[in-house]
Design goal:
Elements: H1 2-15, H2 26-37, H3 71-90, H4 93-104, H5 107-112, H6 119-138, H7 146-165, H8 170-188, H9 195-227, H10 240-243
Helix pairs in contact: 1-2, 3-4, 3-6, 6-7, 6-8, 7-8, 7-9, 8-9
Length: 258
């Protein structure tokens, strides 16, 4: 059922047809982009679950028969992400290999990653944020180095990605936030650091973990509204003034009072 739901929204992006959904737009935008780049023309109706795709090129969005395209590729990235995270936390190769082995043969991950769903995209950004956070923590002994800035910034990018796919991504924001508070509290208690250095640490985290994710999250919506410029099933959720900007809407370019 969900593949029918989100596959249709991918088609909306390809056809630039405006729609409304409860989830943020990033996941559906990426599904539509994957379909567009792989040759899908956005014409499959996605009317009910189980419909055959027939001549429609869906492999770019879905990824079956070991194609590992987009959703399947992102799902497969969970294995190295988990491996690297556990290896960094435990410094134990057997523990990291066991974690990777468990995920490789996890039926739920395999199933979710072979359909047109938001779940593999969401899990990619969630685990990417955790991995980036752990890697940044490992650079604590060399703050403001290139690697430290890279992992801190990448954490912010992954936070924006998680929030941009589903609002449940806020839980990883909470995790990173608690980790950041702990780090700052530890730095504040370090009497060998001046308040100026502490202020730099605080500013770096504000820029990379608050400003950067919010800017990227807002940019996703800007792209969303720029691409979907044609009338569609989501018109009625918005004001008459907004509907007048949609091509094909009854109010398009109509002069109306504010």
């Amino acid at each position: 059922w969900d593949e029918t739901h989100f596959g249709k929204m991918g088609s909306y992006y390809i056809n630039r047809t405006f729609f409304f959904d409860v989830h943020p737009p990033l996941g559906k935008m990426l599904i539509g982009l994957a379909g567009y780049l792989s040759g899908y023309d956005g014409t499959f109706p996605f009317q009910k679950p189980g419909d055959r795709y027939e001549q429609h090129n869906y492999l770019g969005m879905r990824g079956v028969r070991f194609c590992r395209l987009f959703c399947a590729f992102l799902g497969s990235c969970l294995v190295p992400f988990a491996y690297l995270t556990v290896l960094e936390l435990s410094k134990s190769l057997p523990a990291a290999l066991l974690t990777a082995f468990i995920l490789i043969f996890d039926t739920g991950c395999i199933t979710l990653s072979q359909y047109i769903l938001l779940d593999p995209i969401l899990m990619f950004f969630l685990m990417g944020a955790v991995l980036s956070m752990v890697k940044c923590n490992s650079c604590a002994d060399r703050p403001f180095s290139a690697s430290w800035w890279f992992w801190l910034s990448l954490t912010g990018v992954n936070l924006a990605g998680a929030m941009g796919v589903k609002f449940v991504g806020l839980f990883v924001v909470l995790l990173v936030g608690l980790n950041t508070i702990y780090d700052l509290w530890d730095l504040l208690g370090n009497l060998s650091l001046s308040l100026i250095v502490f202020g730099k640490h605080l500013l770096a985290r504000v820029l990379c973990l608050i400003v950067l994710p919010l800017a990227l999250y807002t940019a996703v919506f800007a792209v969303h509204f720029a691409v979907l410029n044609k009338s569609g099933p989501g018109d009625g959720f918005f004001s008459s003034a907004f509907q007048s900007q949609l091509i094909g809407n009854n109010l398009h370019n109509v002069s109306i009072p504010e």
